[in-house]
Amino acid sequence: MLLLTASSPVAAQTGIEDYRPVFETVRAEDGRKLIAIRRFRRNGEEFLLTVEPQSLATQIRPLAWTVADGTPDTSKLDGTPYFSALTALTNPPYKIENTGLVHAMLPVDGVFLTVDLCPSHRAYEAHFFAELARVSAREGRPTPVAISISGYWALEHQSEWTALIEAERRRQIDITWVNHSYTHRYARGLPDAQNFLLMPNTDFEREVLKTEELLIARGLTPSVFFRFPGLVSDEYLVLKLRKLGLIPLGADAWLAKGRRAKPGSIVLVHGNGNEPLGIREVQPYLADTRVKWLPLREAITGR
Ligand SMILES: [Zn+2]
């Protein structure tokens, strides 16, 4: 009883404590320069969430495996794909809808599939995920898919979440975990400017960090991408996101809204059962053997 009251409820559930943003360069065992964007303690040991600035690959690493390199001199990071994209995609103008990465920054021979899991009482799109596994079998490699997961979806759909993790373990899909906020605030009928994370009393940092903690507690690694609920944001949120080291992810091919994908497009569908039209619209793309699905970070790094 004493132990339970001494630690926070989150720590009691996940074993993760003192989860906090940092922005520091560190060196890996092999001397590679990495950027640490989070630090936390788990079972008494210190860990970092690091970003590889050339590839944008993220990793959870014990602090003991790294050598501190001091606070980054950002001029030395200029020109790396991560830092260039983080800056360019959080610069003005601050459109209220669909800001950030909406299309590949370099020419690529393929498209990017992003699947949103907003909170929902419906079952997820099991047939769609099974179809992705069939595409993987056809192509002989796990199909890359960026899954934008909200904390509230994950908490309410534990067995479906487990099935996705299991599908990746079986190499049926290759998941990039995109943060879609923890609560995914939304009120029907409110204009965008007062809705989603622009609602009053939104604790934006908590929305970001709690989702990451949930992923890490599950043994997963958050990516550098964040998708704003409703694709709605403002200057304040985008600049906060930049400080947290994350890149806003939009879409130029939200299929249910009648948009079509072309090379370099970021395709958006909902996997949470709330938008069956998008799931129908993506079928011809999945059936088309000429369509190459690419990992999301290649929208920034190219191939
Ligand atoms: Zn959403």
Notes on the structure:
- With 303 residues, this protein is an alpha/beta fold.
- It folds into two domains: 2-77, no CATH class; 95-301, TIM Barrel, CATH 3.20.20.
- It contains eleven helices and twelve strands.
- Helix 5 packs parallel to helix 10.
- Residues 116, 118, 180, 184, 229 line the site of zinc ion (ZN).
- InterPro entries: Glyco_hydro/deAcase_b/a-brl (IPR011330).
- This is Polysaccharide deacetylase.
Could you name the key traits of this structure?
303 residues, alpha/beta, TIM Barrel, 2 domains, seven-stranded parallel sheet, five-stranded antiparallel sheet, 23% strand, globular, disordered N terminus, binds zinc ion, Polysaccharide deacetylase, Glyco_hydro/deAcase_b/a-brl
Largest sheet: 7 strands, parallel
End-to-end span in angstroms?
Answer: 54 Å
- At the fourth level of CATH, the homologous superfamily of the largest domain is Glycoside hydrolase/deacetylase
Number of DSSP helices?
11
Instruction: Tell me the CATH architecture of the largest domain.
Output: Alpha-Beta Barrel
**Helical residues, percent:** 25-40%
Number of domains: 2
Bound molecules: zinc ion
CATH topology of the largest domain: TIM Barrel
Can you tell me the residue ranges where pLDDT is under 50 for at least 5 consecutive residues? 1-8
Q: Tell me the radius of gyration.
A: 19 Å
| Beta-strand percentage range | 15-25%
C-alpha geometry:
globular
Average pLDDT, to the nearest integer?
94
Structural class by helix and strand composition: alpha/beta
Q: Quick one: CATH class of the largest domain?
A: Alpha Beta
The number of distinct β-strands equals 12
Spatial strand sequence of the major β-sheet: 10-9-8-7-6-12-11
Order of helices and strands: HHEEEEEHHEHEHHEHEHEEEHH
Protein name: Polysaccharide deacetylase
Organism: Parvibaculum sedimenti
